[in-house]
Amino acid sequence: MTPDSDKPTPSPGLPAAPEAGGAVVAAPQAPTEPAGAADRAADRTADRPAGRPDIPAASSPAHTAPPHRLGMQPAMIAGWSVALVALTVSILLWQRVSGMQETLARQNAESGKQAAEARAVARQADDAVRDAAARLAALDARMADMAGYRSQLQELAQSASRARDENLAVDLEAALRLAQDQSQLTGSTAPLLAALRTADRRLGRSQDPRLGVAARAVARDLERVKTATVTDTAGLLGRIDQLLRQVDDLPVANDVGRASVASRQREAAAAEPANWWGRTWAAFRAEAESLLRVSRVERPEATMLTPDQAFFVRENLKLRLQGARLGFLARQYEAARSDLSAASTALGTWFDPASRRTQTAATLLQEAMAQSKSADLPRVEDSLVALGNAASGPGSSVGNGRSN
C-alpha cells in the first residue's frame, strides 16, 4: 500500500473530485476496458466491504507500476550482475591459488627429494674423499719407507765401497792422538814422530784421492815436529831443586847480622896492616860498623818483617818452587810458569837484592822461566782434522780439500 491508495479512486466515467483548495482538475479518460473485464471489476466492487475505496488490481494491465519500483529494477540487476561477476572472479582466483599451492607443494616435494639425493651424493663423495685420503696416506707412508730403505741401501753400498779407506783414516787418527798424549806425558817428541812417519807411509800407499788432503797435512806436521825444540825437563827440574836447597840460606831484607856489601868491598880493597896496632884498629872499626848501619830502604814492608814471618816467607817460596816442579812433571806448563813468576816476585820483595846468594837464586829463576817458555810440544791438529774429515764422509773431505 502506497499513500495514494488511501485516496478514493474515481469510478470510470465519473468526473474527478475536487482537490483541497477548491480546484477542480479534470480527470483523464480511462481507456475503454473490455466487457468481461468490466463485469469482473463490478463483482469485486460488490464483494468489497463498504467504506473501503476501490483498489485496482495489481494484475490488471490497465494499471502501470509505481515510478520508484521502475527505478529499482536496473540497480538490482546491476548489483546482481556485479555479485555474479565477483563470485565468478573469486572462484577463478581460488582455483588459480589452489593450482599455485599444488604447484608449490609439488616443487617443494621435488626440492626436498633433490636435497636428500644431493646429501646422499655429498655423503658418498665425503666417504670417497676419506678413503682416498687414507689410501694416499698409506701410499705416502710406503713411499717414505721405500725412500728410507733406498737411502739405507745407498749408505750400505757407499760404506762398503769406502770401508777400507775410512778404516785406514780412523786407525791413523787414533794412532796420532795416542802418540800426542804420550808425547805430552813424557815430554819427548819421539812417539809423535814415529806415529807421523807411519801415517805418512800408509797414506802414500793409498790410492783414494779423498786421503790426499790428509796426506799433505801429515807431511806438514811431520816437518814441523822435526824442527821443534825439545825442553830439557831434567835440567829444568835440577835448577828448581838447586833453588830449593838455597832458600834457607837466603838473607832477608832486614837481616842485621850481616855486613854490608860496601864494607866488604872496602875490606877486600884495603890491605891488611903489618903491625899489631893496625890490625887492632881494623878489627875495632869493623865491630863499630856492625853496630851502626845506614842504608836506603826501598821496600818499607820488608824492614818490618819479624823472624817468625821470615820463616813463613821462606816456606811460601819453597811451596811455589815445589808447585812449579810438579807442574813441569805433569806437563802443566802454564801453572808451572805462574808459580815461577810468583817465586821471582817473592824473592825480589822479601830478600836482600844486594846479596850474592839472592842474585844467584834470581839468575836460576830467570833461566828456568826462559826455558819453560819453549816447553810446549807441537801439536798435530791439522792432521787430526784432515783424517777426521776423511773418515766422516766424502762430502766433508772434498770440501776441505777445496778449501785447502
UniProtKB/TrEMBL annotation:
InterPro entries: HemX. The chain crosses the membrane at residues 75-94. It comes from Ottowia oryzae. Keywords: Membrane, Transmembrane, Transmembrane helix. It comes from the Bacteria. Residues 40-51 have a biased composition (Basic and acidic residues). This is Heme biosynthesis operon protein HemX. Residues 1-68 are annotated as: Disordered. It holds the Pfam family HemX. Residues 16-39, 52-68 have a biased composition (Low complexity).
